[in-house]
Amino acid sequence: AGDSSVLNCSPKPNMTMVTWKINHKVGGPCSLGYRADQNKTDRTNCSDSIHWKFRPDRDPTLEIRQVGIAHEGNYTCEVVVPEGNFHTSYYLTVLVPPKLTLHCDDQGNPVCEAASGKPAAQISWVLGSNSTSKEEGHDDGTVTVLSKLTAHSTNGTTCIVSHPAGNWSKSIAC
């Protein structure tokens, strides 16, 4: 999330038409098209963040700026040439790194929170095996994971958060 994503569609000699058909998981479909005989581009229901990266007559690559959860879905490029139609398909999955916090609760137990990640993060503890975890799903598709360590050393402990977007750790003494 937040980065740009580039989806390649191989140009072919003598292209007569190129179409990107996009079906987002949330919201309606959109499309970008190019017709060589009229040197004309067309866009239908696409946000301003979705556009041709270059001139579509030379390179039909698609760029998505500031990728968000709403961009997740199927992207298909169709290139039409005299020899036939060629398709390239992608499924765009958007990763949202969680926000990590670590604090002590009222009983002096370390509580690690990985907030609003997509997919849900995994939480583990260094030198701690007695923990309870719970997950809370949000309307935007993100998940908050909360883990409380119930048997720990008073010298401190470390929470480790694992996620496809990265791994993080924080330490605390309660």
TrEMBL record:
Gene3D superfamilies: Immunoglobulins. It is found in: Membrane. It is a single-pass membrane protein. Transmembrane segments: none annotated. Residues 1-93, 112-173 form the Ig-like domain. GO terms for cellular component: external side of plasma membrane. GO terms for biological process: regulation of neuroinflammatory response. Keywords: Disulfide bond, Glycoprotein, Membrane, Receptor, Transmembrane, Transmembrane helix. The keyword Transmembrane applies. PROSITE patterns: IG_LIKE. Its main location: membrane. It comes from the Eukaryota. GO terms for molecular function: signaling receptor activity. Belongs to the CD200R family. This is MOR1A protein. It comes from Glareola pratincola. The gene is Cd200r1a_1.
